[in-house]
Backbone:
């Protein structure tokens, strides 16, 4: 029997970001239409002195998030894997093991299934808690007003529970799974390459980031997820008179997890990049000083005013600077020619 989680993970790895975006939008559209059809049939698109479907901004933010989360997660994974084509890595052989392990992790091979099962279990507990509050408790007392998906409206109740099932047991666990393992292996690859002397900051790289633009792209994808989670938390808080505790705890935990990943992994990676950049600048400085003391003074001026690496490099390779430097060096010959001395 095929493991559904592994099957989804395999598709995630093999499909393009655009395909995953289309897939996410399609499922979110089906999700919304099923909720809308159920709410319209039961007359709870708006609820007097309560929250109808069209007043539930937290729900809408979740639907939108579900539409793009797989796309953003794939962009993060692709950005991490693109280290293999970066000019910053002089010898890609040293990181092949880390990248192969990353693919195995995302596909949930063998021991790498534990994390996704842990995240799914946590999501299931929150889902069961939410169902319990609706079935056993009093939703009106729980959230401070009437809600459109109470058991009094069975169609919307079922549609809303299916929405939460899709969100908490599929989307959120998979996104967390991808981000955690990708971050771990990116840090591992950077560390191994750096220790092996295979990592350099290429000052003349067209990406203007020394060959590390893939880290910036990963960071952007990461922060998009953080922003979406923050929006969802805010919208759920604004929707209900009394906050849905399981929503709040789940989203705060996810936010803390994402911020922790940023600090532990991306923060350390940017520290390594900064060190490599300074080493490359110092190497350029030493070479310039040995060949042209005037250029050294100009470079020193740039250092003192904290001009960016790209500004220094642009000046050094600027044709005008090269011509002026040549004139200065050839000035004695030029003067002798014109004076006839």
Residues:
């Amino acid at each position: 029997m095929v493991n559904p989680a592994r099957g989804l993970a395999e598709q995630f790895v093999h499909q393009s970001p655009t395909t995953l975006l289309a897939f996410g939008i399609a499922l979110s559209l089906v999700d919304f239409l099923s909720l809308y059809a159920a709410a319209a049939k039961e007359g709870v698109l708006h609820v007097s002195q309560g929250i109808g479907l069209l007043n539930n901004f937290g729900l809408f933010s979740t639907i939108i998030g579900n539409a793009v989360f797989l796309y953003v997660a794939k962009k993060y994974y692709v950005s991490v894997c693109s280290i293999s084509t970066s000019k910053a890595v002089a010898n890609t052989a040293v990181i092949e093991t880390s990248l192969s392990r990353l693919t195995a992790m995302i596909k949930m091979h063998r021991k790498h299934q534990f994390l996704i099962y842990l995240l799914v279990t946590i999501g299931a507990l929150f889902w069961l808690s939410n169902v319990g509050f609706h079935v056993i408790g009093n939703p009106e007392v729980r959230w401070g007003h009437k809600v459109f998906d109470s058991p009094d409206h069975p169609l919307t109740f079922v549609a809303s529970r299916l929405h939460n099932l899709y969100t908490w047991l599929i989307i959120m666990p998979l996104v967390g799974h991808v981000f955690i393992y990708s971050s771990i292996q990116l840090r591992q690859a950077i560390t191994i390459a750096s220790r092996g002397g295979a990592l350099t900051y290429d000052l003349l790289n067209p990406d203007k980031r020394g060959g590390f633009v893939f880290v910036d792209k990963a960071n952007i994808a990461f922060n998009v997820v953080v922003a979406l989670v923050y929006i969802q938390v805010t919208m759920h808080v604004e929707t209900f008179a009394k906050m849905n505790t399981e929503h709040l705890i789940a989203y705060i935990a996810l936010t803390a997890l994402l911020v922790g990943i940023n600090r532990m992994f991306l923060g350390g990676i940017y520290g390594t990049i900064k060190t490599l950049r300074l080493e490359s600048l110092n190497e350029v400085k030493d070479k310039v000083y040995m060949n042209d003391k005037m250029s050294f003074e100009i470079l020193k001026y740039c250092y003192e005013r904290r001009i960016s690496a790209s500004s220094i490099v642009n000046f050094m390779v600027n044709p005008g600077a090269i011509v002026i430097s040549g004139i200065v060096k050839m000035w004695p010959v030029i003067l002798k020619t014109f004076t006839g001395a």
Summary: The longest helix spans residues 245-291. The chain has two domains: 4-276, 292-339. Residues 4-276 form one domain.
